[in-house]
Amino acid sequence: MRLTTIAAAVLLLAACAPDEIVPTAPMALDGVSFEVEALPQAEGPCDPAQPFPARVTWDVTDWTDPKFDFLLRSTNGQLFARHNTASGEHVTDPYAREGLWILLVDRNTQLLVATKPVPALVCPAD
């Protein structure tokens, strides 16, 4: 009986979970500023073929309860940061590559607020 109840609860939660969103174009809700910037590697020569850190900045005006999750690739993707502020900045560890999607999701509602891909890393001229 207990196993049946647990299985039913899991199925119910899965049915209520929002559909996964895999972005194909940058977007941001009205009143949202969301930017992603590629940063050169801290050590060694700058190499766009190698993973690098990225800076994410956001400014969400008129958000009642700002609690945001930052995810990679999709709304079911890997969580890499959480912030409880309407604006801010976060620098990732050096795992970004050109085209990696970064998503800003409201933690309370699971609403996709904004998304952009990581741009190409441009190395400074020698």
Can you walk through the features of this model?
This protein is mainly beta and 126 residues long. The protein has 1 helix and 8 strands; from the N terminus they run H-E-E-E-E-E-E-E-E. The termini are far apart.
Q: Termini, distance in Å?
A: 69 Å
Estimated structural class = mainly beta
Low-confidence stretches: 7-15
Radius of gyration: 18 Å
Strand order of the largest sheet: 1-8-7-4-5
User: How do the helices and strands follow one another from N- to C-terminus?
Assistant: HEEEEEEEE
Largest sheet: 5 strands, antiparallel
- Helix amount: 10-25%
Average pLDDT, rounded to a whole number, is 86
Instruction: Work out the helix count.
Output: 1
Strand content: 25-35%
- Kindly state the number of beta strands: 8
Shape, please? elongated
Helix and strand arrangement:
Blueprint: H1 2-16, E1 27-28, E2 32-38, E3 54-60, E4 68-72, E5 79-83, E6 87-91, E7 101-106, E8 112-117
Antiparallel strand pairs: 1-8, 2-3, 3-6, 4-5, 4-7, 7-8
Provide a quick synopsis of the model.
With 126 residues, this protein is mainly β.
Key descriptive features of the protein:
3-stranded antiparallel beta sheet; 5-stranded antiparallel beta sheet; 126 residues; mainly beta
